[in-house]
Design brief:
Length: 431
């Protein structure tokens, strides 16, 4: 059965358990004061950074920095929260110097939990989320107001520097890659041109349209050979028509002249025949030569097309690099610098002490109630009528012998007896 049903029951319980209640309240208040005094205030400072879009539209000058701003900021946050970066900040500002018992890893973890980086997504264009961040907030919670401001500003500066370095490195790497690719294609074209030139030189194809030229040259050589044959025949006829009846010296001189002419014509004919045979051999091998030249030309066209594509990409990379070096691309600007906070974000010590006292009082009455539940005794006529339904006729109070009375009663009895003896002594003196 429950002992508390009315306000009178509650007051009776309070009187009976007053000692326990006061003891618990006193102990709880002492603990609350200690808790309030031992608590360290925490100050919070935030710096707000705006992510500005490129000043020049992508349709006019496209940046070569790939990926959304949210993804890039996520990579930057990972670098900021790395162990080496946090240890550098701890050493720079001598953070947690009063916590000598903390290990370096515990200090790094404490700083990691004390600093937060949050981003606000930009307004969507259409129905898709492009991952663009418009505002970045860097917050630091520290035990000192100035430290909170310094740490928040330090992380903001590092974020801006990492963002600029990341974009610059990406544009430089893109430009260097396409410049290298362009140079490789140019070198390949130059090597192919040298190979074609060597092939033409080896196959006597220095002039364009070499086969047609050889055929025309062979026709001219044949005509020249015919002319030489006619000249040889004419010289031979002239030799047979020499007048043998003349002087011997005259005849001999005429024969020598004709023989010299025949030798000259024969040598010329031999040279022309040799050249014609050479041309005939080269013309006979021209199909293989033409196929080889066609293969060279196809390779050259492929390299030329590749060079055009790479040159276009390299020009775009150069434009992106110029945008970043000219500070015309995406950048971070501070719209609200971190300030020294005026008040801590934690609860005041006075409020903590009051809350502790209230909690101790509630706990004291809970303990008293539990003690009452432990011994559910009927202590009054009201309780008997309520619990049993019987109205008691007589209520006999608890009678204690005098020797069992409290010290307060004994002191009062002593004072009463002393007063009675004093009055008797005064009456005796008067009589």
């Amino acid at each position: 059965m429950g002992p508390i049903y009315t306000v009178q029951d509650f007051l009776d319980m309070t009187r009976r358990r007053l000692g326990v209640i006061l003891f618990v309240i006193l102990g709880g208040c002492i603990a609350a004061l200690y808790w309030a005094q031992s608590h360290v205030h925490v100050y919070r400072s935030s710096e707000v950074i705006q992510i500005e879009q490129p000043k020049i539209a992508d349709e006019l000058a496209r940046s070569t920095v790939d990926g959304s701003s949210a993804r890039r900021l996520q990579l930057i946050e990972q670098k900021l929260m790395a162990r080496a970066s946090l240890e550098d900040v701890i050493a720079k500002y001598d953070l947690f110097a009063n916590l000598d018992a903390l290990k370096p890893s515990e200090r790094v973890d404490l700083l990691r939990r004390s600093v937060s980086i949050t981003g606000v997504a930009a307004a969507r264009e259409g129905f898709t989320d492009d991952g663009t961040i418009s505002v970045l907030t860097i917050t630091a919670d520290m035990e000192e107001a100035q430290l909170a401001r310094d740490v928040a500003h330090e992380f903001a500066d590092r974020t801006r520097a990492l963002m600029a370095d990341q974009r610059r490195e990406q544009t430089e790497a893109t430009l260097a890659f396409f410049s290298q690719q362009e140079q490789q294609v140019i070198d390949a074209l130059a090597a192919l041109d040298r190979e074609i030139e060597t092939f033409r030189s080896e196959n006597d194809l220095l002039l364009e349209g070499g086969v047609e030229f050889r055929l025309a040259e062979m026709a001219q050589i044949n005509e020249s050979i015919l002319e030489l044959d006619r000249g040889i025949i004419t010289a031979q006829l002239a030799r047979t028509q020499i007048d043998r009846g003349g002087r011997a010296s005259t005849v001999e001189r005429a024969e020598q002249e004709i023989d010299a002419q025949l030798n000259s014509l024969t040598q010329q004919r031999s040279l022309l025949v040799a050249r014609r045979d050479e041309l005939r051999d080269s013309v006979q091998s021209s199909p293989e030569t033409q196929r080889a030249l066609a293969a060279f030309e196809r390779r050259r066209e492929q390299l030329q097309a590749q060079l055009e594509v790479v040159a276009t990409r390299r020009n775009e990379a150069q434009v992106g690099f110029n945008l970043e070096t000219g500070d015309q691309g995406e950048r971070l600007t501070t719209i609200e610098e971190a300030q020294v906070p005026d008040y801590p974000i934690t609860m005041s010590k006075k409020r903590r002490a009051i809350m502790g006292g209230v909690a101790a009082t509630i706990f004291a009455f809970v303990v008293a109630f539990l003690l009452e539940l432990r011994r559910p005794v009927i202590r009054s006529a009201r309780q008997m009528q309520r619990e049993v339904g019987i109205m008691p006729v007589v209520s006999v109070p608890t009678l204690e012998p005098k020797f069992q009375s409290s010290k307060w009663r004994m002191q009062r009895e002593k004072r009463r007896l002393a007063g009675k003896a004093g009055r008797a002594a005064r009456l005796a003196r008067q009589s």
